[in-house]
Design a protein that fits this description.
Number of domains: 2
CATH class of the largest domain: Mainly Alpha
Shape: elongated
Strand content: under 5%
Largest sheet: none
Structural class: mainly alpha
Helix content: 55-70%
CATH topology of the largest domain: Helix Hairpins
Radius of gyration: 28 Å
CATH architecture of the largest domain: Orthogonal Bundle
């Protein structure tokens, strides 16, 4: 394994600011957009990002420094400290090396950020089926209608898009309000 400090080109005594500056310079130099199609630059860019992910975090850097290198980190699996590391970092006792640990952490972080929270626009379009749903739709559309009217007085600040958005919100909430009222007073068909 390569030494992370050598990858970034900084001494082991480098401060956090020096590491950050070295990372930015190297990432700028080897970025794939600046070197299209260059596989060597792409590999260097990946190594630089992986090195900064460890050295840029004070806790991970302290762990890395404690073992001297990524190889030393993997070799010290049986120490007392590593029983703690096994629990907190998800390593197994058979000696996963530092990079596989890092990859596990990166994958876990990516899964965490990939959760999408999207607004389902179909809720406004579908007609309420029960009286309870109709009442909720009535309250929601009434609140939106009042909010749009309230915001319309300041919408001129964002000319021309502000008034347009407010008017669209008013129209949308008014139609939803009428649908909710209609569903609320609709007789059940048998």
């Amino acid at each position: 394994m390569d030494d992370l400090y050598k990858i970034l080109g900084v001494p082991k005594t480098a401060s956090a600011d020096q590491i950050k500056k070295a990372y930015r310079d190297a990432a700028f130099k080897y970025h794939p957009d600046r070197n299209p199609g260059d596989k060597v630059a792409e590999e260097n860019f990946k190594k630089i990002n992986a090195a900064y992910a460890v050295l840029g975090d004070a806790t991970k850097r302290a762990d890395y420094d404690r073992f001297g290198s990524a190889d030393g980190y993997a070799a010290n699996q049986s120490s007392t400290y590593n029983s703690y590391a096994n629990k907190s970092y998800g390593q197994n006792v058979y000696g996963d090396d530092f990079w596989s640990w890092y990859q596990q952490q990166a994958n876990a972080q990516n899964r965490q950020y990939k959760q999408t929270y999207s607004y389902n626009n179909n809720d406004w379009d579908k007609e309420p089926k029960t009286k309870k749903e109709a009442f909720r739709a009535l309250v929601r559309s009434l609140l939106l209608l009042l909010t749009c009217f309230y915001l319309l007085r300041w919408s001129w600040i964002l000319l021309p898009i502000g008034p347009i958005l407010c008017l669209l919100g008013i129209v949308r909430s008014a139609t939803a309000l009428l649908q909710a009222i209609q569903a609320l007073f609709k007789k059940k068909e048998s």
